[in-house]
Each structure stands twice: as structure tokens, then as C-alpha cells.
Amino acid sequence: MGSRNNTNVPDFILVGLTDSEEIQQVVFMLFLLIYLITVLGNAGMILIIHLDLQLQTPMYFFLSHLSFLDLSYSTVIIPKTLENLLTSNKYISFMGCFTQMYFFAFLGISEFFFLSSMAYDRYVAICKPLQYPIIMSKKLCSTLIAVSYLIGGTESLAIVLYINSLHFCNSNVISHFYCDITPVLALSCTETLNTEIMIIIFASFNVMSSLITILVSYGSILSTILKINSTSGKYKTFSTCASHLLGVSIFYGTTVFIYLKPKQSYSLGKDQVASVFYTMVIPMLNPLIYSLRNKEVKNALIRVLQKKESSRQLK
Known about the structure:
- With 315 residues, this protein is an all-alpha fold.
- The protein is built from 10 helices and 3 strands; from the N terminus they run βααβαααβααααα.
- A 3-stranded mixed beta sheet has the order 2-1-3.
- The longest helix has 34 residues, at 94-127.
- It is globular, with a radius of gyration of 22 Å.
- Residues 1-7 have low confidence and may be disordered.
């Protein structure tokens, strides 16, 4: 394609998941279904939390923001992927690619600290129940969310600016279905070591700081649970954390597999499958995980529906 730097690249080409038109049609329907479930699930979770007064607690405040983040996360990736599957146009503009990369990184990084904030909330609720309303004040909850977004926004901006300064002269074909950091880095014909080191430092900080918070919180929770005499009491206390633990395990497991490794080890097949799980399946699963195992959410949904039905009958 000739020698050219990033200022002359008008667009990139997203290879996608498959070249087969038949498989593309199947994948399109599957991804569309996943996106619809994601939108309905997360938007529904936000709506229920907003409408039901009994869910106006710190735990559900964090959960509503997690649902908003997952909804935004999917919207950054899936619509463009669906367009590429439906049409022969695989192009994405240079600006569009880096915009997608920025929001993808911003939302992904923020989720690390959302999950650690939720773990801290569970720690205070179980280990310090009498002090819970004082410690988990509206101010603290809002601060934790704001700091999560601030870290995500700052780190993602630095990453995108560094990658944007690289030269792309060998190819503009991205071996992925969206503008992820690793496959875009692989296109650079200039030295990317400094950028990779910065990304590894950020990723290590995000994983370690949030994971330490989660492990310390759940270590204290486990210690408190073990002190409870009755088996039913232990089960009831642990059940309030089970959904969050499941969500954390899925999120961290996939993230570590994809990102805490050098770009040379990028594998088109297995990394794309992992990325589908990371960018599409997890945002779809989160509202299911937090609602199907949660009686409070189920009861809130019943109350909201009953209230709506009562309003309709009065009319």
C-alpha cells in the first residue's frame, strides 16, 4: 500500500469474524439478538431502580451505573459490527476508529473501579451494618463513580493519543471486528515499546488496585460470614454477594486473558472469540446475573408493574 503515516490514512478496514456470507448472516442475527437483550436488560434495570423507592440504596446506585456502562459499552461496538456484517463495506474512518477505541477503553477501565466500589459497598453492608448509612453516603457513592470515570477517561485519552502518534505504513487492515488496542498496535511500522509499556502499566494498576480492593473486601466478608452460627444465616449473607462475585470472576478472567500480554501473542481466532464474550456477552449477562438471583429486583419489578396496572385502571 506504500509508505504512509497516520496523518495520511483515511480509513481502516475491519476484517471481521468470517468471510463466509452464510456465516455472516447467522452471526448478524446472533449479535442483533444479543444487542437487543443487552439494551432491554440494562435499560430495564436502570428504569426499575429509578422507579422503585425501595431500591434507592447505594448497592443499586452502583448497579444502575454498571447497567448504563454496559449499555454504552455494547453500543460502542455492536452497531458498527452489525453494519459490517450486513454490508460489504468493512471500512471505518481513522477518526471513527480512534473514537471507538477511546470510548471502548474509557468504559472498560471504568468498569474495573465500578466493580471494586460495589465490593467495598458489600463489605460495609456485611461487616459494618450499623455504620452503613453513614459510611456509604450519597456523597461517597457519587465520588466513587466520578473517580472511576475520571481514571477511565484520563487513561484512555493517554492511550489513544500515544497510538495516534504512531505511523501506519504497512497495512490498514485491522484483524478484528472493532478497533481494539492490540490489533491496531500490530499495524504500526514504528517502535511501539513505549506505548506497550504504558498500556501494561495502566492495565496492571487497574487490575491490581481494583482486585486488591475486591479481595480485601471479600476476605473480610468471608471472615464475618464464618462467625455466623446458623447455616441459613451464612447462606443468606453470602447470597447478597454471589451475583457480584460471579460478575467479577467473568469480567476479570476475560480481561486478563486478552490484555495482559504483548501484542506479538495476538491470535486472530481465540482473541476474537474472547473479545465477543468480553464486549457483547458480559454486558448482556450482567443484568441477568444481578436480577435473576436477586429477590429485591424481582419484587421491585412486580411492584412497578402493579403500580402501572393500578394507574391504568384508575384512568
